[in-house]
Amino acid sequence: MSTDPFSASVIPFEVPESMRAFAEKGVSQARDSYAKFKDAAESQNSTIEAVFTSASKGASAYSAKMMEFMKANSTSNLDFAQELLGVKSPSEALELYTGHVRKQFEAFTAQAKELAEIAQKVAAETSEPIKASASKFYEPAA
Asked: What is the DSSP string of 8-26?
């Protein structure tokens, strides 16, 4: 008998059935985990797209409303300047100025309220896809 460990006789090695089942179960769990991760990633991508689409539309609506207000305010100021050129006395100018300031204050107040409503609506619409996505992942166990 030879004492050389690299000699001719090789003992075949067989993986025990319990080890094989354990390895197969691990691979199966890894595949399931990967599938869940992939689904979550795809869902998050669509959520992000929806958020940016909603935010973009909201920003456009807000900007359009701002431009509308700027035009109305500019027109009002030009009308005031034109009326001011036609006054005949300082008291008439003061009365015209006081009326214009009051109208502008009322207009600015209404405009600020309208812009705040648009901003709230945009915030709600933008957060909706996030809420919907989160509810999928955090549903209470039944």
From this structure: S--------HHHHHHHHHH
Q: What's the CA gap between 84 and 70, in Å, rounded?
A: 21
Q: Is the pTM higher than 0.70?
A: no
Rounded to an integer, what distance in angstroms lies between the CA atom of residue 71 and that of residue 38? Answer: 50
Q: How many CB atoms lie within 10 A of CB 125?
A: 16
* Residue pair 100/80 in contact by the 8 Å Cβ criterion: yes
DSSP letters for 126-137? HHHHHHHHHHHH
For 8-18, what is each residue's pLDDT tens digit?
A: 565 666 777 88
State the residue for tokens 């700027």.
70
